């Protein structure tokens, strides 16, 4: 991977998009966006279907051309360059392996395209099969492999020619949950070992949170928020982000001073200090796992937000228990807590007190 | 519904057609077989005769050469058509497929006369060439092998297009995308992906057109020359010129046997893989 290092010193950006957009007649698939991806970064394009994440991927891969804007690959303008000259690697959701070729031939394909020496091809193919744990299966045909193994071939075929960027289009979408988690770990390991830039497309937020250096959350053909998994989870900017990533309680309120909000029935809650427009309406987000439930007679910590209410439902979902509470001032709040045995879990219709720290309240920018 | 009862139901629905076809087809075929062995004497004399006849051997050779060449040529042309069709939108493809089928809906006799007018010594093509080069051009394009191949491929290409198109359409589009992203140029994609993956369709097309052209009769007699006569024409020769019916019958039986030998694997193949015919 010495070559990759030299390149990395040369410039920090693997991909730069400037005002890139795509429209199909009257339909806008992607509004003009600016985006830079650093060398060696693991960037995830996350969003619901139709959000433009696949359009963005296809623009970078060259499967479609942009309506406006430019795309730079390592400072080189590739806006109008055909896919085969871009030197990008791609892993597909449906694997896209050549069904008539063996595993070896599939992985050797990009090297044969590059007319490498048969000896070099053999060595590289074996090394890359080693990396994905498929050594010994090189003579099988794709249809003789499981889904997970086929995708490993897809990945081996990609890393074998050391492309500057690897794009992964929902690569684990067709696999079952356990295998998906295992493969997530393997892709992360490969990313670390190889130092390649990876652009990963998924609609699975857990996958995105687990794997990415940065997440680019898209909706309606626009970037809604771009940041680290931490930022997106703990500092969502909008209601969409808060609701798309993780679970959230949204409480509407009106700004009073720089650290208080007035919510339903003239109750007040404390929020982190910031300059806000007096009396403007905002949503406050609190993650369910940050909400603590206590009995009415228990003391709460000084300075916490406290509401009381009645338990509506309590569902035991393994490690966590999800409790829904209707508060006295008419809000429905969900709290998530580490599961306890049935006799000590909150029972429906019991009266409880809710509290959370002001620092766990996030005031959304609408 | 399970498989065996489906077959049972199919048998009930098919049997009237099968019976009718058998009643009409089998007696004449048996009569030909009967004639070829001189009736109840069951003599193999005619078969021994044709085995040693140089006319028969030469015609058999011509027939095989023409059948192989015309099926290869037709499949080559049909492959180009099929790959082009596969790239069109479904709507456009349907319209273009009607154009492909058009020659099949025209009487082969009419088409042969049309080709005579187009390709003849003073035909349309030679006329255009003469006008273009301002000199009298009379290229021999009919009553020879060129005319024969033009006529045969014209009727064989549509037959070959369908199985090949089915194979080409079955190739997953993302395989092409993957190859292209990995740096493969169109020529390499054609050689390493399109052709190998459409091989079942290409083979089905080859067999079908080969079997069709083995029994060609009208095209060689109207567009071919004296040295392009095939086994069917030889049957006609013994039948109408020499009036040697047992000989004609024996040649017919040999021809029928050849067609059955090459056609049977195709029938099994279609049943198993569902390629060919009306599946597009």
From TrEMBL, chain A:
GO molecular function: ABC-type polyamine transporter activity; ATP binding; ATP hydrolysis activity
GO cellular component: ATP-binding cassette (ABC) transporter complex
Keyword Manganese belongs to the record: no
Keyword Oxidoreductase recorded: no
Catalytic activity: ATP + H2O + polyamine-[polyamine-binding protein]Side 1 = ADP + phosphate + polyamineSide 2 + [polyamine-binding protein]Side 1
UniProtKB keywords: ATP-binding, Cell membrane, Membrane, Nucleotide-binding, Translocase, Transport
InterPro entries: AAA+_ATPase (IPR003593), ABC_SmlMolc_Importer (IPR050093), ABC_transporter-like_ATP-bd (IPR003439), ABC_transporter-like_CS (IPR017871), Mo/tungstate-bd_C_term_dom (IPR008995), P-loop_NTPase (IPR027417), PotA-like (IPR005893), Transp-assoc_OB_typ2 (IPR013611)
ABC transporter domain location: 15-245
SMART domains per record: AAA
BP GO terms, sorted: quaternary ammonium group transport
Catalytic activity, EC: 7.6.2.11
Pfam family, one: ABC_tran
Family: Belongs to the ABC transporter superfamily. Spermidine/putrescine importer (TC 3.A.1.11.1) family.
Described purpose of this protein according to its UniProt entry: Part of the ABC transporter complex PotABCD involved in spermidine/putrescine import. Responsible for energy coupling to the transport system. Involved in beta-(1-->2)glucan export. Transmembrane domains (TMD) form a pore in the inner membrane and the ATP-binding domain (NBD) is responsible for energy generation.
Subunit annotation: The complex is composed of two ATP-binding proteins (PotA), two transmembrane proteins (PotB and PotC) and a solute-binding protein (PotD).
Protein name: Spermidine/putrescine import ATP-binding protein PotA
Lineage per the UniProt record: Bacteria, Pseudomonadati, Pseudomonadota, Alphaproteobacteria, Hyphomicrobiales
Underlying gene: potA
From TrEMBL, chain B:
Protein origin, superkingdom: Bacteria
UniProt-listed Pfam families: BPD_transp_1 (PF00528)
UniProtKB keywords: Cell membrane, Membrane, Transmembrane, Transmembrane helix, Transport
InterPro entries hit by this protein: MetI-like, MetI-like_sf
Membrane disposition: Multi-pass membrane protein
Compartment(s) where it occurs, according to its Swiss-Prot or TrEMBL record: Cell membrane
Gene Ontology process terms (BP): transmembrane transport
Gene3D superfamilies: MetI-like
Keyword field contains Transmembrane: yes
An example Gene Ontology CC term for this record: plasma membrane
Residue ranges annotated for the ABC transmembrane type-1 domain, each copy included: 60-266
Transmembrane segments: 12-34, 64-83, 95-119, 146-171, 192-219, 248-269
Family: Belongs to the binding-protein-dependent transport system permease family. CysTW subfamily.
Protein name listed in UniProt: ABC transporter permease
Organism: Bradyrhizobium uaiense
Classification lineage: Bacteria, Pseudomonadati, Pseudomonadota, Alphaproteobacteria, Hyphomicrobiales
């Amino acid at each position: 991977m010495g070559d990759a290092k030299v390149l990395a010193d040369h410039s920090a950006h693997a991909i730069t998009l400037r005002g890139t957009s795509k429209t199909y007649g009257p339909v806008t698939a992607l509004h003009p966006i600016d985006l830079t991806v650093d060398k060696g970064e693991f960037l995830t394009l996350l969003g619901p279907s139709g959000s433009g994440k696949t359009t963005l991927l296809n623009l970078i891969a060259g499967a479609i051309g942009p309506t406006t804007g430019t795309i730079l690959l390592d400072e080189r303008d590739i806006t109008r360059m055909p896919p085969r000259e871009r030197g990008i690697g791609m892993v597909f959701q449906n694997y896209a392996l050549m069904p008539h070729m063996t595993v070896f031939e599939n992985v050797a394909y990009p090297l044969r395209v590059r007319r490498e020496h048969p000896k070099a091809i053999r060595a590289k193919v074996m090394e890359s099969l080693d990396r994905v744990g498929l050594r010994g299966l090189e003579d099988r045909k794709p249809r003789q492999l499981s889904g997970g193994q086929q995708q490993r071939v897809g990945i081996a075929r990609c890393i074998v020619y050391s492309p500057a960027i690897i794009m992964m289009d929902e690569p684990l979408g067709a696999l079952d949950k356990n295998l998906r988690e295992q493969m997530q770990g393997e892709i992360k390991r490969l990313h670390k070992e190889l130092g390649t830039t990876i652009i990963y497309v998924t609609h699975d937020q857990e996958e995105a949170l687990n794997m990415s250096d940065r997440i680019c959350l898209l909706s309606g053909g626009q970037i809604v928020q771009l940041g680290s998994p931490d930022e997106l989870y703990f500092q969502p900017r909008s209601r969409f982000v808060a609701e798309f990533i993780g679970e959230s309680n949204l409480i509407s309120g009106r700004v009073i001073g720089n650290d208080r909000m007035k919510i339903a029935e003239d109750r007040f809650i404390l929020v982190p200090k910031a300059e806000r427009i007096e009396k403007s309406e905002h949503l406050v987000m609190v993650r369910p796992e940050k909400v603590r439930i206590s009995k009415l007679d228990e003391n709460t910590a000084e300075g916490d937000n406290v509401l009381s209410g009645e338990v509506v439902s309590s569902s035991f979902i393994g490690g966590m228990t999800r409790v829904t509470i209707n508060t006295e001032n008419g809000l429905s709040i969900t709290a998530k807590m580490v599961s306890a045995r049935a006799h000590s879990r909150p029972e429906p219709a019991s009266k409880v007190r809710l509290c959370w720290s002001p620092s766990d309240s996030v005031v959304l920018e609408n | 519904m399970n498989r065996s009862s489906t077959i049972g139901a199919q048998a009930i629905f098919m049997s009237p057609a099968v019976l009718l076809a058998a009643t009409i087809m089998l007696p004449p075929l048996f009569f030909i077989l009967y004639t070829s062995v001189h009736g109840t004497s069951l003599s193999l004399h005619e078969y021994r005769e044709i085995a040693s006849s140089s006319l028969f051997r030469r015609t058999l050779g011509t027939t095989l050469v023409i059948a192989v060449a015309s099926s290869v040529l037709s499949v080559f042309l049909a492959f180009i058509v099929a790959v082009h069709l596969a790239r069109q939108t479904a709507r456009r493809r349907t319209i273009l497929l009607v154009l492909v089928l058009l020659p099949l809906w025209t009487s082969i006799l009419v088409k042969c006369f049309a080709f005579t007018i187009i390709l003849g010594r003073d035909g349309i093509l030679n006329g255009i060439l003469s006008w273009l080069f301002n000199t009298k051009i009379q290229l021999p394009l009919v009553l020879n092998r060129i005319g024969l191949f033009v006529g045969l491929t014209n009727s064989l290409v549509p037959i070959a297009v369908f199985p090949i198109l089915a194979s080409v359409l079955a190739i997953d589009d993302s395989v092409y995308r993957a190859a292209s992203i990995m740096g493969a140029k169109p020529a390499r994609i054609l050689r390493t992906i399109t052709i190998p993956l459409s091989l079942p369709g290409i083979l089905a097309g080859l067999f079908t057109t080969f079997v069709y052209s083995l029994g060609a009769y009208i095209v060689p007699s109207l567009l071919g020359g004296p040295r392009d006569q095939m086994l069917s024409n030889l049957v006609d020769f013994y039948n109408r010129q020499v009036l040697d019916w047992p000989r004609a019958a024996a040649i017919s039986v040999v021809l029928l046997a050849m067609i059955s030998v090459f056609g049977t694997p195709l029938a099994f193949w279609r049943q198993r893989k569902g390629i060919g015919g009306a599946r597009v």
